[in-house]
Amino acid sequence: MDRKTFIAGLSLMLASCGSRKNLVVGSKNFTEQVLLGEILARQIERRLGVSVDRKLNLGGTMLAHEALLHGSLDLYPEYTGTALAEVLKRPALPDAKMRDAQAVFDTVRREYRRRWQLEWLSPLGFNNTFAMVVRRDAGVATLTAAAKAHPWRLGMGYEFAQRPDGLDGLLKTYGLRLAGQPATMDLGLLYSALENRQVDLIAANSTDGLISALPVLALEDDRHYFPPYQCAVVVRQSALARYPPLRAALEQLSGKLPDEAMRRLNFEVDGKHRPAGQAAEEFLRGV
Question: pLDDT (tens digit, 9 = 90+) per residue, 134-152?
Answer without folding.
Answer: 999 999 999 999 999 999 9
